[in-house]
Write a structure and sequence with these properties.
It contains 16 helices and no strands. The longest helix is centred in the C-terminal third of the chain and has 88 residues, at about 310-395. The protein is about 85% helix and about 0% strand. With about 475 residues, it is mainly alpha-helical.
């Protein structure tokens, strides 16, 4: 049956479209010449252009829907061209108000054709599950709820969300707001939630949102379950947050304990050398004192009980104990001396480090001062060279004389630093051969001996040239 209905619909649509285009072509061709001012040759092209624009826009819209790149402007343009075609056909045989029956008859076929194409488009969109069907707001919604529809349209475009998802979210939000208002009204009326009188208000309250009576009466249980679910999720999030805090505190405590252990190990290593010797000495002293005390008491007891040999033996043992005490004291003194020596060595090392730091600071300061003096020397040399060049320009020296004076300034600068200028440096500086560099250096030395002093502006050849 579906196949048969589809074939019948396609056949009927094709017949309706063919008849509509045939009649529209005839009407528009005639009206294009008689009413709209086209020539006899151009009037058929006017009719073809209007009908072809409608078909092209609709076909393009279907094609872009199949590739999931819908563009609503094409449908708007197709409907606009259809309205224009209806107007042109209706006014083909006179004013529309004077010939209403003819206008309706001539404008009917384009309307039927567009309706057939829109039906085919809906079938295609539904069968292919194209997104254009879901992302387009139905026109009737703009008429029935324009303000709410504008908010839906705005959210769809701002957040790139499909129409069905936005509508479902808006409906859930509206139902929740109505439920909140219902609870406030029940509490204000002094009714108990869940009572028959309170539940009787729900269907009417939720009727504007499309809920049936059963759905409205089941809403309290649904809301209770949702509230319980939200509480459980919140408790779960709170537990996870508390667990994260405990983990963070545990990690921080582990790091603090590790830091304290590291510091304790460092302190133990630092004091190990000092403490071992002292502890050993104190232990030896305590052991020796204990043994001496025991031996002394034994010797006293024996001296009272026996004579000569036993007393002598006790005295010997007491002497040995005293010797051990002295030896332990000597070891303790040696350990103390070593401790003091180590402390002194540490202080000496600290002093050496401080001295080295002071010398480094002095060296850095000397280097900075040397850099400053070098910069001042370069500035002074540049000033001297500038004044010398100005004097040479005033004296109108030849290029050779200028080279001689340039080399002389090089020699003067090198003499201040205790260095010498070789011929290779002169060759590179003035760009001459080795023989010319040697001759120029000799002339520069002779000029210096004659009293050339560029720093004070003294040049022995300047007066003679001025007189000449």
């Amino acid at each position: 049956m579906k196949i048969g209905l589809g074939i019948a619909a396609v056949a009927g649509g094709a017949v309706m479209g063919a008849i509509g285009f045939y009649l529209s072509f005839g009407n528009l061709s005639s009206a294009g010449h008689t009413t709209f001012g086209f020539s006899v040759d151009h009037a058929p092209y006017f009719a073809i252009g209007v009908d072809a624009a409608i078909v092209t826009c609709l076909v393009l819209d279907l094609f872009m829907a199949t590739i999931r790149t819908s563009w609503p402007l094409l449908r708007v343009l197709a409907h606009g061209m259809t309205a224009a075609s209806i107007y042109f056909n209706a006014s083909a045989h006179g004013a529309i108000t004077e010939n209403v029956d003819k206008a309706l008859a001539h404008g009917l076929m384009p309307v039927l054709f567009v309706i057939g194409v829109e039906a085919g488009r809906r079938i295609l969109v539904h069968q292919a599950a194209l997104p254009a069907d879901h992302d387009t707001i139905p026109g009737h919604r703009w008429l029935l709820a324009g303000r709410q529809t504008w908010r839906i349209f705005r959210q769809m475009k701002l957040w790139d969300e499909p129409y069905s998802e936005v509508v479902a979210r808006q409906r859930r939000r509206a139902v929740f707001n109505a439920w909140t208002e219902y609870k406030a009204e029940v509490a204000k009326a002094g009714l108990e939630q869940g009572s028959e009188e309170a539940l009787a208000r729900l269907p009417k309250k939720l009727e504007p949102f499309g809920l049936t009576v059963d759905e409205a009466l089941a809403l309290p249980d649904q809301m209770a379950r949702e509230e319980l679910r939200r509480q459980q999720e919140q408790e779960k999030r709170d537990q996870e947050l508390e667990l994260e805090k405990e983990r963070a505190e545990h990690q921080a405590e582990k790091e603090r304990v590790a830091h304290r252990k590291e510091m304790a190990a460092l302190k133990a290593d630092l004091s190990a050398t000092e403490g071992v010797a002292g502890a050993q000495a104190r232990g030896a002293i305590a052991e020796a004192e204990a043994r001496a005390d025991v031996q002394t008491r034994s010797a006293t007891a024996l001296s009272d009980a026996v004579d000569s040999q036993e007393v002598a033996e006790a005295n010997r043992r007491a002497a040995e104990a005293n010797a051990k005490v002295l030896e332990a004291e000597a070891k303790a003194a040696e350990a103390e001396r070593r401790k003091q020596s180590e402390l002194a060595r540490i202080e000496t090392e600290k002093a050496r480090v401080l001295e080295a730091q002071r010398k480094v600071a002095e060296a850095e300061a000397g280097a900075a001062e040397a850099k400053r003096r070098a910069a001042e020397a370069r500035d002074a040399a540049a000033q001297i060279a500038r004044r010398a060049v100005e004097a040479e320009d005033i004296a109108n020296f030849t290029p050779k004389q200028r080279r001689v004076r340039f080399v002389a300034r090089m020699l003067i600068a090198a003499g201040r630093s205790g260095e010498d200028v070789d011929l290779a440096a002169i060759e590179k500086a003035i760009g001459v051969s080795t023989s010319t560099a040697s001759t120029t250096k000799a002339e520069a030395i002779a000029l210096m001996k004659a009293g050339y002093d560029p720093e004070n502006g003294v040049d022995p050849e300047v007066p003679s040239r001025a007189e000449a």
